[in-house]
Design brief:
Chain A: Keywords: Oxidoreductase. The structure holds two protein chains of two kinds. Chain A contains twelve helices and 14 strands. Chain A is an alpha/beta fold. Chain A has a single domain, classed as Rossmann fold, CATH 3.40.50.970. In chain A, strands 2-1-3-4-8-7-14-9 form an eight-stranded mixed sheet, with helices on both faces. In chain A, strands 11-10-13-12 form a four-stranded antiparallel sheet, covered by helices on one side. Chain A has a two-stranded antiparallel ribbon with strand order 5-6. In chain A, helix 7 links the parallel strand 7 and strand 8. In chain A, helix 1 crosses helix 7. Chain A is globular. Chain B is of the alpha/beta class. Chain B folds into four domains: about 200 residues, 3-Layer(aba) Sandwich (Pyruvate-ferredoxin Oxidoreductase, domain 3), CATH 3.40.920; about 180 residues, Rossmann fold; about 80 residues, no CATH class; about 110 residues, Rossmann fold (3-Layer(aba) Sandwich), CATH 3.40.50.920. In chain B, helix 1 packs parallel to helix 4 and helix 17 crosses helix 20. The two termini of chain B are about 35 Å apart. Classes of the chains: A alpha/beta, B alpha/beta. At the A-B interface, strand 2, helix 3, helix 5, helix 10 and helix 11 of A face strand 7, helix 7, strand 10, strand 11 and helix 9 of B.
Chain lengths: ~350, ~625
């Protein structure tokens, strides 16, 4: 069973956000993932991000594919509609849902097996279409639910728990997202909540395809010395390019970080992304440089995390299709059905 | 569209007056620009008040391969192809021998005589009409593309003289066709008259095959099924279309775009979203996502696309999400015959996906029903919360048919089915996504975002209880599967009923048919009756089958089931779903990819009757 309802008891003094919700209102069922799974940390980060952003939980739609990562939407945002679709094909379902009602917030949750193997095509096309969503990949380099096979993001030469070496080149989803035109690309680590929460917040407020590749070690099958996606490996090789604050209505919601050059990026919805550069040469507004930097650091064995790229002038699929502001699912007969007179004209044109 | 069934003989003797009753076939090279000229020819006859049956026969290729266009002129208003050719317009040297051999004895052969053919290339029993089309073009035009395009108009002109088609009608059609590009009108009319003048001068015009103005078209429209179905989708309130190009269904999505541009614009803003997906999997995925979120969504595809969509279709069935799929069937299996017609996706659609699944199929007979079912499909999908297939085929989808005009009742409203609203949730109504509250197997759903604290649920393809909570308990699973069956029983009462017709004489013989076969069936029945073979008929219009279908089969000693596939897929469906004795159902199967004809149906049934030793003749003829 993966559906264990949490008790609804709320302590009366729990802090509330501007909408009056407590953090508990953003939780879901009890997780049935392995104790210590990185995915649970990501769920916790999503819960915190949504709570702090004052989002109404029922206005978020959470969609996933199949796999450990895709089970996680059950464990957060219990008041939201969820959709556990088929393996690797969450992006198309999310795209359709977004077309039907542009007023909701779309959260696509996927895994490396789900997105980099069977679903690579759908990942790519949803990104290049600019679907307005946060697409988050909980990336552990391994197939957990089928007990330990390599996924397509496993590094070449990394070892499985049983000692087998991976002989295939890895797919770097962050680099791919950059190449495919994502207007927001980040990478983070499930064990770095201070970095992950503001990234999720910024991605949710971003208009267009926002992608976060989140390294999330698998405690059961990929957290051993030979793995390059283990907690220890990622901690040792993590190089954060920047620290991010998200300013909503000019109220900072994350702590200030240490000294460094400051860059402010204003998004469509007025949110200000305040970036403190740690790497002096890193500019997150330069797509080409971001791709180059990722590759250079990967060659050194570094896992680059942080906001890799953002386009503050981004557009989304609805802009491309010029759809009306009213959600398509709420248009009625008067708006949609041309009526008998129009049909008479059609008939006349066919004689 | 008048469907005169009185007093006509199917196979007419050659010669004699063939006014308003003959077949012209054009043999062309794909890519030569002949299609619009041939269409002009067909439409000019319709404008003279004489019905036609027009069929394209074309290759899966862009240029260079043979293509044919067949126009049956039929004042009686038959709807199906006849077979046989009275006048062959042989414009393709590649297929010359086949085309010459295809002419009925006593018929005519029209060809480009710029390079005269030796007598050995003709037949003594047909009349040859040579027009030096290339020579005429080369004199009049210097541009090679113009020479090609106007050659087509010149032969239309020559035919207008030979067949006595009113040139003013053709001129009017040309003017309509080039409205807005007026400078093209005069050159086309000039070309028309070049051909016409040559024929009038060189041949005794008109031939015994001729067109005489009549009043047999009425208010019928001439339209292809894909455009009609797409218009149905507009009237059905579809707002999301996700599709992937595939013959013969691409023109359906393209027509939807065209119709939407005309009807659904709001300034610069669109009240629709059309996405050309990366493949069929993504297209049905988007439809399911949109359907889940409360928009009316569809995809159009053909057999190979149906194969690719199987997994998602199972999800939509099990998770109970509305989706409309227009399947324009072509020759299968595998790549099969991409540009030929069949009805061979029935089982793949009826039982799409793994596990126990059943899907609703609608079976239109022509473009008019493609429109009606194209809109109805969205009501059914919403009402039943399940995929609904509109089963067109290439013959209906890509050919232009003369059919009843489209009609719409302005009082009709979209049936959005059982959707629990915010107000209902506020009122405290118990919401269980898979609760059978009305005993019809259909639960209530909520759209995402409806209510802050009530009505949300998790959609999944794994099994769950009535409150959408994941469970793999056996009784919970069975409860769900049985409810889905109950819902399918409800579907029987909602889908279009079959059309039953009694024979003029009492008979133990029945015929069941569906879809594009209907066009040939009307004519076949009359011919059979003239031979003393009487049959009651039942035209299927949907799956699941209503109880009337099984009753019909049980009331007859023998029932022929006419279908356009090798394995008798509809027979399989009928036998398994209605628990019928297979021996009572005899398949008449036509599956070479060409549209079925009355000649074929009559021949196959007549051949089967002696073997079956059935009683209808005894009953029919006392």
């Amino acid at each position: 069973m993966t559906f264990i309802t949490k008790p609804k008891f709320h302590h009366p003094k729990l802090p509330t956000n501007r909408l009056g919700y407590t953090r508990r209102d953003y939780e879901g069922a009890v997780s049935t993932l392995c104790a210590g799974c990185g995915h649970d940390s990501i769920s916790a980060a999503i819960i915190q991000a949504c709570f702090e952003l004052d989002l109404a939980p029922h206005r978020i739609a959470k969609l996933s594919g199949i796999g450990c990562s895709s089970k996680t939407p059950t464990y957060f945002l219990g008041a939201s509609h969820g959709f556990n679709s088929v393996h690797g094909r969450m992006p198309s379902v999310l795209t359709g849902a977004n077309l039907a009602n542009r007023d909701l917030i779309y959260l696509g949750v996927s895994g490396d097996g789900d997105s980099a193997s069977i679903g690579l095509g759908q990942f790519a096309h949803s990104i290049r279409r600019g679907v307005d969503m946060l697409y988050i990949v909980e990336n552990n380099g391994v197939y957990g639910l089928t007990k330990g096979q390599f996924s397509a993001t496993a590094d070449k030469g990394s070892l499985s728990k049983r000692g087998a070496a991976n002989h295939d080149e890895p797919i770097d989803l962050a680099s791919m997202a950059l190449l495919l035109g994502a207007s927001f690309v980040a990478r983070s680590f499930s064990g770095d909540k201070e970095q992950l929460v503001p990234l999720i917040q910024a991605a949710i407020r971003h208009k267009g395809a926002a992608f976060i590749d989140c390294i999330s070690p698998c405690v059961a099958f990929n957290n051993h010395p030979g793995s390059t996606k283990s907690f220890d490996f990622v901690r040792e090789h993590n190089e954060a390019v920047n620290r991010l604050d998200v300013m909503v209505d000019h109220a900072p919601i994350a702590a200030q970080y240490g000294p460094g050059e400051l860059v402010e990026v204003t998004q469509h919805d007025g949110t200000v992304l305040r970036l403190r550069k740690l790497d002096a040469d890193y500019d997150p507004r330069d797509r080409g440089a971001a791709i180059s930097y990722l590759q250079q650091q990967a060659a050194k064995g570094e896992v680059v995390t942080g906001l890799l790229y953002v386009d503050p002038e981004s557009a989304d699929l609805h802009d491309a299709l010029s759809t009306v502001a009213t959600p398509l699912n709420s248009l009625d007969d008067a708006a949609l059905v041309p009526g008998a007179k129009a049909l008479d004209k059609v008939n006349a044109s066919l004689r | 569209m008048p469907q005169s069934l009185a007093g006509s003989s199917l196979i007419q003797s050659p010669g004699g007056d063939r006014t308003n009753d003959f077949v012209v076939k054009f043999a062309n090279v794909n890519g030569s620009g002949s299609a619009s000229a041939n269409l002009l020819f067909a439409r000019s006859i319709i404008r003279m008040g004489v019905p036609v049956v027009a069929r394209n026969i074309f290759p899966s290729n862009i240029q260079g391969l043979p293509t044919w266009y067949e126009v049956r002129v039929t004042e009686q208003g038959w709807r199906g192809a006849r077979g046989g050719v009275d006048l062959m317009v042989a414009m393709n040297p590649q297929t010359w021998d086949k085309d010459v051999n295809g002419v009925d004895p006593g018929g005519y052969l029209f060809y480009d005589s710029t390079k005269p053919m030796p007598a050995s290339k003709f037949r003594p029993d047909i009349t040859v009409l040579g027009v030096p089309l290339t020579a005429i073009c080369n004199r009049a035009y210097t541009d090679s593309r113009q020479r090609q395009l106007f050659k087509n108009i010149i032969y239309v002109g020559a035919l207008s003289a030979l067949l006595d088609i009113d040139p003013a009608v053709i001129e009017a059609l040309i003017a309509e066709q080039f409205k807005g590009k007026d400078k093209l009108i005069r050159p086309n009319i000039d070309a028309l008259h070049m051909g016409r003048d040559y024929a009038l001068q060189e041949f005794p015009c008109p031939l015994p095959l001729k067109v005489r103005a009549a009043d047999a078209v009425g208010d019928a429209i001439f339209v292809d099924g894909n455009a009609a179905a797409a218009l149905g989708a507009v009237y059905g309130g579809a707002t999301v279309c996700a599709w992937y190009p595939i013959t013969p269904s691409s023109s359906l999505a393209e027509a939807f775009q065209r119709h939407c541009r005309r009807f659904r614009g709001e300034g610069e803003q669109n009240k629709y979203a059309i996405v050309q997906a990366e493949d069929e999997l993504a297209s049905i995925g988007m439809v399911i996502g949109a359907g889940w979120n409360g928009a009316r969504a569809f995809t159009s595809t053909s057999g190979p696309g149906i194969s690719l969509m199987q997994e998602f279709l199972g999800l939509a069935y099990f998770a109970e999400i509305p989706a409309v799929i227009f399947d324009v069937q072509r020759g299968g299996p595998s790549t099969g015959m991409p540009t030929r017609t069949q009805q061979s996706d029935l089982l793949a659609c009826a039982y799409a996906s793994h596990g126990d699944t059943k899907h609703v199929l609608l079976l239109p007979e022509d473009p008019n029903e493609a429109f009606e079912m194209g809109s109805l499909a969205f009501d059914l999908a919403d009402r039943l919360q399940t995929p609904v297939f509109v089963m067109l085929d290439l013959d209906i989808g890509m050919n232009e048919w003369l059919c009843r005009p489209f009609a719409w009742d302005d009082n009709r409203r979209m049936d959005r089915g059982k959707v629990m609203t915010r107000e209902m949730l506020e009122a405290g109504i118990d919401f269980g996504r898979y609760l059978d509250v009305d005993g019809d197997g259909i639960p209530y759903r909520t759209y995402p975002g409806t209510h802050p604290t009530r009505g949300s649920y998790f959609t999944r393809g794994t099994t769950r209880d009535r409150y959408a909570r994941y469970s793999e308990e056996g009784p919970v699973y069975i409860d769900n599967m049985e409810r889905l069956l109950a819902k399918f029983e409800t579907a029987k009462t909602l889908v279009p009923a079959p059309v039953e017709r009694a024979a003029a004489e009492p008979t133990g013989l029945g015929i069941v048919y569906f879809g594009s076969t209907a066009a040939a069936m009307d004519e076949a029945l009359v011919t059979m009756a003239e031979r003393g073979i009487h049959a009651d008929t039942l035209r299927l219009r949907a799956f699941p089958f209503s109880d009337a279908v099984a009753d019909f089969v049980r009331r007859h000693d023998t029932v022929f089931l006419v279908e356009q596939n090798r394995d008798g897929q509809m027979r399989t469906l009928l036998v398994s779903e209605c628990d019928l004795d297979p021996a009572r159902l005899v398949s008449i199967r036509h599956y070479d990819g060409t549209p079925i004809t009355a000649r074929f149906i009559v021949g196959a049934i007549a051949a089967a009757l002696p073997d079956l030793n059935v009683v209808p003749l005894r009953k029919a003829v006392p």
